[in-house]
Write a structure and sequence with these properties.
- The longest helix is centred in the middle third of the chain and has 27 residues.
- The protein is mainly alpha-helical and 435 residues long.
- Strand 4 and strand 5 form a beta hairpin.
- Helix 8 crosses helix 9, helix 9 crosses helix 18 and helix 10 crosses helix 18.
- It has a 3-stranded antiparallel sheet with strand order 1-2-3. Strands 4-5-6 form a 3-stranded antiparallel sheet.
- The protein is globular.
- Bound molecules: acetyl coenzyme *A.
- The site of acetyl coenzyme *A has 18 residues, from loops.
């Protein structure tokens, strides 16, 4: 950080101003260090939704929303998606560098040998209703892991932090597959160590005691790509939640459970589920013929209807992940002989109409990764209500890399935002008969 540049704050009423250091990152906008603002002026900043606030220093993921660029540790997502698999990407996010062949082999072995969950976890699952949303089950079961792995909960011990990271990455697919199997009343399928990460997950999802799952490389590669594209995304809502939860010293399993809860919302990880539901509904109402009416509703502020899978807080040009996911969508549909899938065709028409509409153009609203990831997941056989769980499974590495980076930061403090208070001033409690 260089602090030669200063920012000066003045007030129109003549009250004393203040000067603040300005820091540059390796790329991206400079930041004004306002940590001493309150001490110097007696005022807070007001930035609900963090529209202009950098909440931390990070070296993991960089997004240039105007260029449509996403870099994990400096590597463009377009290159990682075609040259690396998900576990190499995990290694990169956690360690900062891509692994050598030997490092990769040791990392894959560590993850592979931690995929089983404690057998008692199965009873934990039985406490849930079978019709519970799998994200509810995932929030609970991820949080419950803190009750099973006491040997790695010292967050100031580097080795403990590493083993927790490996456990979370390794066990998340097992938990997601268990949530699915439980919901359909099938027995849990144990992990198999001779399969790769994504193939193993698909087998735990789709095999059953009567029928082995036949691994299809195109489908496994598609799932692996979904995981790579969702592995990290800078300081988004769920990652910031994990950091905030972790800033109090909470254990990593509890912090990741907080991330899972945040991801659940339709404005964040729930968007691909919401997008597929939207396409299904539009299809049921008449498909392409009804796109005009639907777009009119989306543009009507009072309708409360949004075009799901469109728009992004940071990408204001295009989402590079959406392009890669569209490619994968073609590959998967071709492999399965579903080229004429009506939902995919509807999505393509809807995209075209929206991209030519002034409302979307002027607001810089483009398809995000979720516009296509739902169609791919549906083709893979993943049920709609499990989509966000797949996202959570993919994002676990990003959450844990950010959590770890935060704990390692010597300047780290508990997160404690302030507020602009608009409530009642001090008043007296009246006896109940006088209220
Ligand atoms: N459909 C219709 N209008 C939209 C959409 C949309 N999907 N997204 C934004 N807008 C409009 C807003 O109404 C607003 O219009 P206005 O200026 O007339 O008031 C304008 O575009 C700016 O929107 P904001 O809400 O200020 O943008 P913000 O950056 O806060 O929101 C968000 C980003 C939450 C992603 C939003 O675009 C959205 O809800 N999209 C649909 C949900 C979705 O796809 N989420 C996935 C995000 S990607 C991910 O998590 C992997």
């Amino acid at each position: 950080m260089s602090n030669e540049l200063k920012a000066t704050l003045t007030f129109s009423d003549g009250s004393p101003g203040a000067e603040f250091p300005v820091y540059s990152g390796t790329i991206g906008p400079d930041v004004i260090d306002i940590r001493k603002l309150y001490a110097q002026t007696g005022k807070f900043t007001f930035d609900p939704g963090f529209m202009s606030t950098a909440a931390c220093e990070s070296a993991i993921t960089y997004i240039d929303g105007d260029k449509g660029e996403l870099l994990y540790r400096g590597y463009p997502i377009e290159e990682l998606a075609v040259s690396c698999d998900y576990l190499e990407t995990c290694y990169l996010l956690l360690h900062g560098e891509l692994p050598s062949a030997d490092q990769k082999s040791r990392f894959v072995t560590s993850v592979t040998y931690h995929t089983m969950v404690h057998e008692q976890m199965t009873r934990f699952f039985q406490g849930f209703r079978r019709d519970a949303h799998p994200m509810a089950v995932l929030c609970g079961s991820v949080g419950a892991m803190s009750a099973f792995y006491h040997d790695s909960l010292d967050i100031y011990n580097l080795e403990h932090r590493y083993i927790s990271a490996i456990r979370l990455i390794a066990k998340m697919p097992t938990l997601v597959a268990m949530a699915y199997k439980y919901s359909i009343g099938q027995p849990f399928v144990y992990p198999r160590n001779d399969l790769g990460y994504s193939a193993n997950f698909m087998r735990m999802m789709f095999a059953n005691p009567c029928e082995e799952y036949k691994v299809n490389d195109v489908l496994v590669r598609a799932l692996d790509r979904i995981l790579i594209l969702h592995a990290d995304h800078e300081q988004n809502a769920s990652t910031s939640t994990v950091r905030l939860a972790g800033s109090s010293g909470a254990n990593p399993f509890a912090c990741i459970a907080a991330g899972v809860a945040t991801l659940w919302g339709p404005a964040h990880g729930g968007a691909n589920e919401a997008c597929l539901l939207m396409l299904n509904e539009l299809q049921a109402q008449g498909g392409a013929d009804k796109i005009g009416d639907f777009i009119a509703k989306v543009k009507d502020k009072h309708s409360g209807v949004k075009l799901m899978g469109f728009g992004h807080r940071v990408y204001k040009n295009f989402d590079p992940r959406a392009k890669l996911m569209r490619e994968t969508c073609y590959e998967v549909l071709n492999e399965l002989g579903l080229q004429d899938d009506p939902l995919f065709k509807l999505a393509m028409t809807l995209e075209k109409v929206a991209l030519e509409d002034d409302y979307f153009v002027t607001r810089k609203l483009y398809p995000n990764v979720d516009f296509y990831s739902g169609i791919v997941q549906k083709a893979l056989g993943i049920p709609t209500d499990l989509f966000t769980c797949i996202f959570a499974l993919a994002r676990t590495v990003g959450w844990i890399a950010n959590w770890n980076e935060m704990i390692s930061d010597p300047d780290q403090k508990i997160g404690r935002p302030r507020q602009l208070f608009k409530g009642n001033v001090r008043r007296q409690v009246l006896p109940i008969g006088q209220r």
